[in-house]
C-alpha cells in the first residue's frame, strides 16, 4: 500500500492558491525542453494547481501533473495535453524508462528526496532531464518593498515551516545526485495591482500559521499599511521573484 502521508500546507485555500500564485516564464520551459532527450512526456511533480504544468504543454506532447493534495488537483487549470493525478512524487505510477523531463516546482523541500530520486531513476529515459525549481522572496518596485520585506521576515518570519529555508537558499542545500548543468538566470515578473499582491500573500503558509497561533490575521493590519504606502490601489507595480534551479540529466546505468 502506498504511504499517503505528506506535509500538507496547501489543501486549505486551494482556490486562492490557483487564483493568486504567479506563473513561470516560458523561457524556463524552452530551456528545459532543450536539454531533454525528446519532448514526448514530462512529469510535473507537486504540481499544485498547474502553474508550470500548463506551460510544459507548450513544448511537450504529453504532461502528467501530480500532487499529493486532491484539493489542489481539483483546482488545477485544464489544458489539452495535461493529465492531472493525485499521487505522491515518490510514487508516480508511470512506466519504467518513459519520461523525458521531471520537474518539481516550489515543492522539492517537502519531498522524501531519497525515495523521489529513486522514482526518477526508474521512470527516466536515458539522459532525461530533472529540474528542482523554486522562486525566492518577492520584491516590489519602489519604497513599498521595504514594508513587504519587514512583514515577510519580521512579522511572520517565525511562523514559516522549517523547510522554507531551502527556498530562501535557492535549494543549494538540497542533495542533488545528478550530473548538474548551468542554467540561464531567470526570474518571474508580473505587473500587479494592490489586490493582486494582497491575494498572493493570503496564500502564504506562515500567514495561516500566524493567524492560528495569534488568534488574529496579521494581514489585516498590514493591509492598511500597504494601502497607505501604495497610493492608487489600481495602479500596477512591478513584482519580481528570482528563480533558482538545480538542473541535471539522469545517467542510466545498466548492470
UniProtKB/TrEMBL annotation:
Protein name: Putative methyltransferase
Top-rank taxon, per record: Bacteria
SUPFAM superfamilies named among the record's database cross-references: S-adenosyl-L-methionine-dependent methyltransferases
Domain Methyltransferase type, first and last residues per copy: 43-131
UniProt-listed GO biological process terms: methylation
Family (UniProt): Belongs to the methyltransferase superfamily.
Entry keyword set: Methyltransferase, Transferase
Stored InterPro entries: Diverse_substrate_MTase, Methyltransf_11, SAM-dependent_MTases_sf
An MF annotation (GO) of this entry: S-adenosylmethionine-dependent methyltransferase activity
Amino acid at each position: 500500500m502506498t504511504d499517503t502521508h505528506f506535509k500538507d500546507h496547501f489543501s486549505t485555500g486551494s482556490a486562492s492558491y490557483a487564483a493568486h500564485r504567479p506563473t513561470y516564464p516560458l523561457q524556463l520551459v524552452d530551456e528545459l525542453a532543450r536539454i531533454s532527450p525528446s519532448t514526448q512526456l514530462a512529469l510535473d511533480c507537486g504540481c499544485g494547481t498547474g502553474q508550470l504544468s500548463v506551460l510544459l504543454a507548450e513544448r511537450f506532447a504529453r504532461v502528467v501533473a501530480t500532487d499529493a493534495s486532491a484539493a489542489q488537483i481539483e483546482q488545477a487549470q485544464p489544458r489539452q495535453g495535461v493529465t492531472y493525478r493525485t499521487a505522491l512524487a515518490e510514487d508516480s505510477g508511470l512506466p519504467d524508462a518513459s519520461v523525458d523531463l521531471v520537474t518539481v516546482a516550489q515543492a522539492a523541500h517537502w519531498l522524501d528526496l531519497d525515495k523521489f530520486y529513486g522514482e526518477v531513476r526508474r521512470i527516466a529515459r536515458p539522459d532525461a532531464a530533472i529540474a528542482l525549481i523554486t522562486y525566492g522572496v518577492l520584491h516590489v518596485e519602489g519604497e513599498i518593498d521595504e514594508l513587504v520585506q519587514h512583514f515577510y521576515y519580521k512579522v511572520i518570519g517565525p511562523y514559516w515551516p522549517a523547510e522554507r529555508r531551502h527556498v530562501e537558499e535557492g535549494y543549494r542545500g538540497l542533495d542533488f545526485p545528478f550530473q548538474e548543468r548551468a542554467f540561464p538566470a531567470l526570474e518571474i515578473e508580473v505587473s500587479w495591482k494592490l489586490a493582486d499582491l494582497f491575494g498572493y500573500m493570503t496564500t502564504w503558509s506562515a500567514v495561516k500559521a500566524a493567524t492560528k497561533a495569534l488568534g488574529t490575521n496579521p494581514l489585516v493590519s498590514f493591509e492598511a499599511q500597504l494601502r497607505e504606502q501604495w497610493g492608487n490601489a489600481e495602479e500596477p507595480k512591478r513584482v519580481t521573484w528570482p528563480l533558482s534551479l538545480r538542473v541535471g540529466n539522469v545517467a542510466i546505468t545498466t548492470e
